[in-house]
Structures are given as C-alpha cells and as structure tokens.
Amino acid sequence: MATSTQQQWVLEGSNGFDSLVLQEAPVPKGQYPFPVKDSVVPLGDGAGVVQAIGPQVTRFQVGDRVLPIFHQGHLAGSLDAKSIKTGLGSSLDGTLRPYGAFDEERLVKLPENLSFIEGATLPCAALTAWSALYGLQGKAVAQGDIVLTQGTGGVSLFALQVSKLFSSLYIGSQISTVRQGIRCEGDCYDIFKGEG
C-alpha cells in the first residue's frame, strides 16, 4: 500500500535557511507534468565545485564553479519526448545531495560575478523565464512588447528583470510586494494594485 504522507524540507519564517524544518506533508498524486522515478533525489537547481574529473574531461578543472543543466539530455532546441525524461530531481537524481557525477556536457560554468546562491537559481527559474520570453523562434519578446506574469515567484521575478533589461512593458500581479528588492521603474505595472 502506498504511503499518503512524506517528510519534506520547508522554510518556515523569514530567517532563510535557519528556518528550514522537516515536516510531514501529503504525497503529491500525479500532478507533476514530467516523469518521476521512485526514490529520486529531489531538486534540479544547484551550484557547486568540481571535486574530481575523469581522464577524458576537457571542459573543467578541479575547483571550477559549475551549474547543472536542468534537463540533462537537452542541449539545444525544443524539448522532445526523449529529453523531457532527463530532468534532474524527477527522472534523474537531483541536486539535494553533497556530491553528484555529471557528464561534462551537462554542466556549465558559474559566472564569476555570481555567488553560489545566486547561481543556483539559474538552472530552473531563470532558464524557464528566458525560454518563455525568447525560446520560441520568431516569437521572442521585443522592445515595447508587453510581458504579463502572475505572482512573485522565481520565474516571475526573472521575467521582470529580463523584460526590463530589454525595455519591454512589464505587467504583473503582486509586484509591489517585491519592490523593496527589485527596482521596478518606468513601464512596470501591478494589475492588482493599479499602480506603476
């Protein structure tokens, strides 16, 4: 008989990782849109340091700061039936572990100007926002276009930053709650607050 609850890590409070607690939670019932293997190590985001390399590795050296590619079998173009089955934390073991072995083609260098925490947000949320704005050939957001997002999660915040970078009109819900951390000036409009 399948279990109905599981233990999971959650943040409770506003003290960052000092607020991390283990709690019981319902087991999700088939709501994730990608394949998930049993007993998978969760998470697809992460950043780390190369600890060792094999004799054939040419792209990295021990000590390099790196990020994983979220879909390990997807290097370019649209996701297909094969590459969609290579997601970290779903079909393949994810990053919630101290060490992992990756093919050198499945990692990228962490930009030098980013901390590990900043870089760890890039493989999923940032890439999802970038793909939504620029991933479809012939449908990339251009200057003056309108970008509409919902909420203040990672994907929405990256979409806000990227759309502002390319001078698009940004419309979002609840953006006034994040203005303390992100400068939302000019063509930036909160649909719920009615303010720009």
What report would you give on this structure?
With 196 residues, the chain is of the alpha/beta class. Helices cover 15% and strands 17% of the residues. It has 3 helices and 8 strands, in the order E-E-E-E-E-H-H-E-H-E-E. The protein has a 3-stranded antiparallel sheet, with no helix packed on it. Strand 6, helix 3 and strand 7 form a beta-alpha-beta unit. Helix 2 packs across helix 3. It is globular, with a radius of gyration of 19 Å. The termini are far apart. Residues 192-196 have low confidence and may be disordered. InterPro entries: ADH-like_N, GroES-like_sf, Zinc_ADH-like. Residues 15-112 form the Alcohol dehydrogenase-like N-terminal domain.
Q: What are the defining features of this structure?
A:
single chain, 196 residues, three-stranded parallel sheet, 3 helices, disordered C terminus, GroES-like_sf, Zinc_ADH-like, ADH-like_N
Question: What is shown here, in short?
Answer:
By secondary structure, the chain is α/β, with parallel strands linked by helices. It has helices at 116-119, 122-134, 154-165, and strands spanning 5-11, 20-26, 48-49, 65-68, 107-109, 146-149, 169-172, 188-190. InterPro entries: ADH-like_N, GroES-like_sf, Zinc_ADH-like.
